[in-house]
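dumping this here before i forget
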Amino acid sequence: MATTKAREDVKNDLKTLKEDVKIAGREEAARLRAKAAETEARLRAKAAEADALVREKAEQARVQAQAYYEQARVRGREVYDDAAERFDEAQRYVIERVQERPVQSTAIALGVGVLIGMLLAGRRR
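structure:
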């Protein structure tokens, strides 16, 4: 009988141990789920911070690029206006010289035309 009692005690102890292991497993699983949820929340917060930082940097880059574009546009306009003014001055100068000496201007134009014609005719041969 002592052996049956001992067997029953061992059986009960094993049953209790099995239930304790199940309970400990459930508790550990719950603890791990809580820790995973906490880690996920931290990761989501970090991702939101990173997203906000990237958006902020992108906006700064856009504003800076827009400023560079505006400066280039203004500078390009200045260069264009300067070139147009110089061209107009050169055109006025040529017109004045032609009006002052029309015969000489016509002779020069004729000479330049003949010279160009000879150069082009020489290339054809």
